[in-house]
Design brief:
Layout: E1 7-15, E2 18-27, E3 32-37, H1 46-56, E4 60-70, E5 78-80, H2 82-96, H3 107-111, E6 117-119, H4 124-193, H5 199-212, H6 216-233, H7 240-260, H8 264-284
Parallel strand pairs: 3-4
Antiparallel strand pairs: 1-2, 2-4, 5-6
């Protein structure tokens, strides 16, 4: 089952201590690009948060945002970073010395500075566990959402694989007719040039043109690549990068097929192949 890289999940944990809400967003990215935003009092959990995400996700730009609200009346108290407060006060005095009429600053002004005063969770151990448990549930929901979207993408890719194989079969069936048409056109041209038709010469020219128009190898490789893509779609591991590589190979064979085309039907088939491959490639950019 393939996984999409785009999804959203929200998980909330509540207790006597208050509430914590995780919002998880995932977008396309070549590698795992993780961004974590949490209140300062939970910053010590960042390593565990990153480990939890890395355990469940391999690719994607993932944003993890935590909002925390302590319960009213809980005896959590406040913490003050006095070192930061002293530094702010010192800088304020130095700036005051540069001004003609400096404004007075009081302790409340210092306390409003980010990081000077922070709420202390009532029981850090209990709250931290609840926050991490909520993250685990949120990540499971995110994976479920990615799997749901991935299933839709997989259905689309399998449908396009079937259409590519149908075109390949159609070209194989049409190829003998194409060679016969080449022979007829060549005989008509040579008949207008020489009075007596040299059958051996005609056969040489037909063989030469048939060699230039031979697409058996391209058709075999197209079929083999599609079979490999279908196998990967059934694997339970990240396959996005490998699928992207096979899209390049399929496109290369379709281009060669188009360059060897000597009739409108095969040219149209090559164009149809390129359209299908591009549709697949666009969707594969969103696969983990």
């Amino acid at each position: 089952m393939i996984q999409s890289m785009t999804a959203f999940a929200r998980e909330e944990a509540q207790g006597d201590w208050g509430s914590a809400v995780w919002e998880l967003r995932a977008l396309n990215a070549r590698y795992l690009d993780l961004s974590v935003r949490m209140p300062e009092e939970f910053r010590s959990l960042e390593a565990e948060v990153r480990a939890a995400v890395g355990k469940r996700l391999q690719r994607g730009k993932v944003e993890c945002s935590l909002r925390f609200r302590a319960a009213t009346g809980q005896e959590g108290g406040l913490d003050a970073d006095l070192g930061l407060a002293r530094e702010l006060a010192r800088i304020s005095r130095e700036i005051d010395g540069l001004l003609y009429d400096p404004a007075r600053i009081n302790s409340m002004d210092i306390m409003r500075w980010p990081g000077v005063v922070s709420a202390r969770p009532p029981d850090p151990g209990m709250v931290h566990k609840a926050v991490l448990d909520a993250l685990a549930v949120g990540l499971d929901d995110l994976r479920a959402a990615r799997a749901c979207e991935g299933k839709k993408i997989e259905q689309m890719l399998r449908s396009r694989c079937g259409k590519i194989l149908a075109i390949v079969d159609e070209i194989r069936t049409h190829y003998p007719e194409l060679i016969a048409q080449l022979r007829t056109r060549l005989e008509e041209k040579l008949t207008g040039l020489i009075a007596e038709l040299d059958a051996g010469r005609v056969e040489q020219e037909v063989v030469l043109l048939a060699g230039k128009a031979d697409v058996a190898e391209e058709l075999d490789r197209l079929q083999a690549h599609v079979v490999e893509v279908e196998k990967m779609l059934g694997q339970h591991k990240p396959v996005g990068r490998r699928l992207d590589f096979f899209m390049q190979e399929l496109n290369r064979e379709a281009n060669t097929l188009g360059s060897k085309s000597c009739d409108l039907k095969m040219t149209q088939a090559a164009v149809d192949l390129k359209v299908l491959i591009e549709q697949m490639r666009e969707q594969i950019q969103n696969i983990e």
